[in-house]
Amino acid sequence: MMKNLQDTTTLHNGIRMPWLGIGVFKVEEGAELVHAVKSAIQHGYRSIDTAAIYENERSVGQGIHEGIQEAHLSREDLFVTSKVWNADLGYESTLAAYEASLNKLGLAYLDLYLIHWPVQGKYKEAWRALETLYKEGRVKAIGVSNFQIHHLEDLMKEAEIKPMVNQVEFHPLLTQKELLEFCKKQNIQLEAWSPLRQGQLLDHPVLKEIAEKHGKSVAQVILRWDLQHGVVTIPKSTKEHRIIENAAVFDFELTLEDIARIDGLNQDDRVGPDPDNFDF
């Protein structure tokens, strides 16, 4: 069981990925984001997740470079993820999008590059581009985001390389049990975005009761629930005290009863788009 913020899971290609990272969805470019990324690194985070569509890769990159320098780390100590957006899904356009993300981040490579959404008729060509980047050693690991079981099965029929990660919406109201089990059987690491359901779960009575029992916050309980399900998680925060709080999840364990009660909250209720019915 993971014991600290630097603990990692090993992807099926042997690359080690931190269990807990920081996400920056909808955080605008600027000093606040630079400080958040820098603070996360200083407080022990080693995984940072962004995406082209967030339009904040420049500030993320600045925060990474300043954070590395101030914490006396090297680039290799971090695990940086970005994603190719729907408009760029295609072989040549995905390769170009990767270069654009690297340039904005000011990095020589990414640790993980994901297809952001399973746009029908487009994701296979994009995947071929990710395979090229991976085989050329330009990215350490490749994966997908928001893929359901049938998307993964369809992709793997023709893929040379199986996705290493599937990043999806995952929280107590959307437990995606079948997808989680499928990914575990396929040795594809599931990763949770919006684990706190954009803060909407922080007043849930069941979660508050479990949190009080453990002397923890509701956010900490949810993140611990992710980890005990074997799910990598990337809570978003720009507040330094929240960044610190979110990382304090390695000194307690939820009981089997706690986990069952949280699992029982599932309503298959999404806060984001349905991967089978979205329009971007």
UniProtKB/TrEMBL annotation:
Statement: the UniProt record of this protein carries the keyword Oxidoreductase = yes
Q: Which Pfam families match?
A: Aldo_ket_red (PF00248)
Q: Does the keyword Ligase apply?
A: no
What domain of life?
Bacteria
Name the InterPro entries for this protein: AKR, AKR5G, Aldo/ket_reductase_CS, NAD(P)_OxRdtase_dom_sf, NADP_OxRdtase_dom
- Site positions (Lowers pKa of active site Tyr): 83
Alphabetized Gene3D superfamilies for the sequence: NADP-dependent oxidoreductase domain
Q: Which residues cross the membrane?
A: none
PROSITE patterns reported in the protein's UniProt record: ALDOKETO_REDUCTASE_1 (PS00798), ALDOKETO_REDUCTASE_2 (PS00062), ALDOKETO_REDUCTASE_3 (PS00063)
What GO MF annotations does this protein's record show?
A: oxidoreductase activity
Positions contributing to substrate binding: 116
In the UniProt entry, which residues are flagged as the active site?
Answer: 54
**What keywords would UniProt list here?**
Oxidoreductase
Q: Which residues are in the NADP-dependent oxidoreductase domain?
A: 31-266
Query: Which family would the database say this protein is a member of?
Result: Belongs to the aldo/keto reductase family.
Name under which the protein is recorded:
Aldo/keto reductase
